Amino acid sequence: MSAERSRLERLLEQGHFAVTGEVGPPQGAGAEGIRHHTALLKGVTDGQNLTDNQTAIVRLSSIAAAVHVLAAGGEPIIQMTCRDRNRIAIQSDLLGAYSLGARNLLCLTGDHQSFGNHAAARNVFDLDSVQLVKLARDLGEPGVFQNGEAIAVEHRARFFVGAAENPFAEPFAFRVRRLAKKVAAGARFIQTQAIFDLPRFARWMEMVRDAGLDRETYILGGICPAKSFGALRHMSTVPGMVVPEPLLARMKGVERKKQAEEGVKIAVEAIQELRRTPGVAGVHIMAIMWEEMVPRIVEEAGLLPRPA
Amino acid sequence: MIVCERKPLPAILENLAGRRQAVIAGCSECVTVCHAGGEKEVALLRDLLLLARPDLELSTIVLTRQCDGEFLEALDSLAGEADCLISMACGVGAQFLAERYPRTWVFPAVDTRFGGGARQPGVWEERCGFCGDCVLHLTGGICPIIRCSKSLLNGPCGGSQQGKCEIDQAIECAWQKIHDRLEGLGRLDLLDVVLPPKDWSRARDGGPRKLVREDVAL
User: What CATH number does the domain located at A7-298 have?
Assistant: First the structure.
């Protein structure tokens, strides 16, 4: 029988600086990779995100992946986007995910399908991410479907609902107002886009604190370790990501064989900076295709052992 | 207006394979204004088709409006003898022809692209998604349904940078524009309201739409 409550939620409520990680489901029907990555991450992170057809590339479903993570002893955070499902499918899938033991949910708009490998697909966007947060929250409390119909008390889906925010997108001044909408809609935790531009993140956090939002939601700063200069440069071209020039130059100046080491160092430094930042409740480490480095990064950041 | 674009000539010729005779029907409304299917374009298409297929017998006509039954009568005599009709109006016009002439093949010579307007000569931009429930009063006169690539109602996604949409640098982020305009109007407060999920039943999701107005009915 699955726990009634999310473990991640409990740890955040207890005031632990949380660490979450990410497991990218495979482009195929095999679950070995998910089990392998869960084994790598479960002892060093408090939750593992399962991406939902990230960058609009067809992958094993995030909900099915969450079942594998649970079986392997992990704490899944399912991601749900608005791109591929309308409100009927979203609610149905969320009820199913909860029935299978998933307790954490990250609500996202979703990358446009033009980035992926099925660019001719029709998109849905029946809801946006703010509306999705509210819908997900409502499935638990007050326990109603999007249309207002009640769900039996014993069959409500009480997810720990979160959302994403990107402090590096624009209009900059509006990002915090939009965050406030997500919090008002019911987002209890926030995972941010990967942070490379620490001063800009600090300015954003200041605005978040001024709005009092750090007291209403748990903010987990995004960390994306870069394996090489090429990887870092690629990230700088992803829409909504900002990698400052000095950081690119720093990585470029390191000899190729040692760039992975430098990537770890940059990630650890960023985590330490975030730990010092008032209002930051944790970090979300997105080391896709580099999952084996997460234990070391968490350890070097001084975040081990993880609380029970 | 309904913005249309002529199909490539090979696609039109393909539809004429095995046919000897056709009527090219233009329209004096939107397709005239957007240079896709007015008098000039009808004459040009005739010439191009004859260059490729000198054996064709082509007649031409430009109707006042193909999307209005009362103006189709002008086509009746030509259509009666025609092997097929090539409509240079939007998809509405082509369908009105198909409905009026049940035994005659009707082919579209244009693709109906979107509801939009001319920004400058030769440049048309989409402005309306025909959702049936206008929200422009909430968004400073800029439509998030059709101008945001994800039809978001509560602000920009994480891909908005330097005023551009994540899917293409040539597309302006609608939400940046909405934000800037409301800021200029001193109404940024409108953006703090969480807009509920839209009722899409007034859009095409509700099934084919029909509007009946008794005040103008005969």
Answer: 3.20.20.220
Domains of chain A by residue range: 7-298
Calpha distance A240→A287 (Å, rounded): 18
DSSP β-ladder status, B2-6 and B110-120: antiparallel
Please name the amino acid found at residue A107: C
Assigned domain for B210 exists? no
Q: Counting one residue from A and one from B, how many pairs have CB atoms under 8 Å apart?
A: 103
Residue range B82-123, pLDDT digits in tens: 999 999 999 999 999 999 999 999 999 999 999 999 999 999
Distance between CA B149 and CA A169 in Å, rounded?
16
Structure pTM? 0.96
Closest by Cα among A4, A18, A71, A26 to A47: A18
Per-residue pLDDT tens digits for B167-177: 999 999 999 99
Segment A258-283 mean pLDDT:
98
Of A107, A11, A22, the closest CA to residue A65 belongs to A22
Of the residues B52, B79, B113, the one at which a domain ends: B113
**Nearest CB neighbour to B179, from listed A111, A129, A174:** A174
pLDDT surpasses 60 at A2: no
What CATH number is attached to the domain comprising B77?
Answer: 3.40.50.2300
Residue B136 is assigned to a structural domain of this protein: yes
Same domain, yes or no, for B100 and B11?
A: yes
**A130 contacts chain B (CB < 8 A):** yes
Tell me if chain B has a CB within 8 Å of the CB of A163. Answer: no
How confident is the prediction for chain A on average, in pLDDT? Answer: 96
CA distances from A8 to A3, A77, A102, A119, A132 (A): 12, 9, 12, 35, 20
- Cβ–Cβ < 8 Å for A75, A12: no
Token readout for A43 is 């002892």
Chain B closest-CA separation from residue A208 CA (Å): 15
Gap between the Cα atoms of A205 and A192, Å rounded: 11
Q: Which residues of B touch A115 (CB under 8 A)?
A: 166-167
